[in-house]
Amino acid sequence: MSSFIVMSLLFGLTFGQTASLCAPAEYTIHVEKRECAYCLAINTTICAGFCMTRDSNGKKLLLRSALSQNVCTYKEMLYQTALIPGCPRHTIPYYSYPVAVSCKCGKCNTDYSDCVHEKVKTNYCTKPQKLCNV
To answer: Where is it predominantly found (predicted)?
Structure first.
């Protein structure tokens, strides 16, 4: 019986790591400035997917460090800059955004990620749209 438990535990640990489906995914960002005539639709990649997490029901029995939940976050990224068309001279017409090169399951880093799930904001243009393919 004990060898069955050990084998089940090893299988669970192995499968748990391979069951994480965290990878770059296509995403469209809509960017507009009040002063500019157009909205820019930027095709980029973000990190998205499923990461194995721990059940925190036993939080009174576990150390605080054991309760952290993994999220799909950037392993490697680069920044691109796009030019928003139709901006007057006094306005800075550039917008910089991250592009996911590779992703990992790990702790959320607030230096470059929004780690709080907020109410979904609409991602659309209110002005005529221009497309930027990167």
So the answer is: secreted
